[in-house]
User: Which sequence fits this backbone?
């Protein structure tokens, strides 16, 4: 029986990254259910749309749908409406047209979709390329499918998904695969100011490529910079358990009560 892969992204249903991995998964004999945003929804993180109704449109007979919402909306509606609670074997988000490393995981719609899948108890992975400059999605999708196959053999810990960043170099030049930790943000200008002809001010948020040389060993940044595929396990539980112990020893709650 064919394994079922739920595919989504945040760059929209027409993105080359989505098309490339979709075609590759179909070639590898997976049953691919594609539910993607009808436009670019980058930077929407894990947001769900509560302020208006959403529309699902079937654009191909081969299980291909678009939603006028966020990546998390696509996962939510895809699992509950299209699949009617039938769980796929794996959820794949991507391939994103730029990196999702370091602090990007808090903003990324690609990562948000994988997180949403994990909330539904589905093994999930987010794929991104290490640079948005002329990525070869054919090579990247080859690498991505290897990880997909491994995920269907090896189990992820409960409440954990993978954030994968693949260098934009020929597949044969990739040095290998590394399990990494999340790096820190290191962007240049994040806000660009524009003036309209009528002298009104506008601002564009979205920094340049990450400054990889500033990052620590063992991080996603460093792995990609050095030509490795970065595989970062991310947990749903964001609780800082060490901080609980520290604050408890410092009698933090008692201090609140005292004040």
Assistant:
């Amino acid at each position: 029986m064919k394994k079922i892969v739920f595919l989504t992204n945040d760059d929209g249903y027409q993105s080359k990254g989505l098309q490339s991995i979709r075609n590759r998964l179909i070639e590898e004999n997976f049953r691919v259910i594609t539910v993607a945003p009808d436009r670019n929804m980058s930077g929407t993180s894990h947001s769900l749309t509560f302020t208006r109704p959403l529309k699902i449109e079937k654009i191909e007979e081969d299980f291909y749908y678009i939603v006028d919402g966020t990546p998390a909306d696509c996962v939510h509606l895809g699992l509950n409406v299209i699949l009617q609670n039938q769980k796929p074997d794996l959820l794949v988000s991507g391939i994103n047209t730029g990196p999702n490393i370091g602090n990007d995981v808090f903003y990324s719609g690609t990562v948000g979709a994988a997180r949403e899948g994990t909330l539904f108890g589905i093994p999930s992975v987010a794929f991104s390329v290490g640079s948005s400059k002329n990525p070869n999605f054919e090579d990247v999708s080859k690498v991505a499918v290897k990880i997909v196959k491994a995920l269907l053999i090896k189990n992820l810990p409960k409440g954990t998904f993978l954030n994968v960043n693949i260098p934009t170099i020929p597949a044969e030049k990739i040095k290998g695969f590394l399990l990494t930790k999340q790096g820190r943000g290191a962007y240049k200008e994040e806000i660009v100011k524009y003036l309209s002809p009528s002298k009104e001010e506008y601002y564009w948020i979205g920094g340049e490529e990450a400054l990889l040389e500033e990052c620590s060993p063992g991080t996603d940044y460093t792995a990609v910079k050095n030509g490795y595929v970065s595989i970062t396990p991310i947990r749903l539980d964001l609780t800082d358990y060490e901080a609980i112990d520290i604050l408890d020893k410092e009698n933090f709650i008692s201090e609140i009560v005292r004040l």
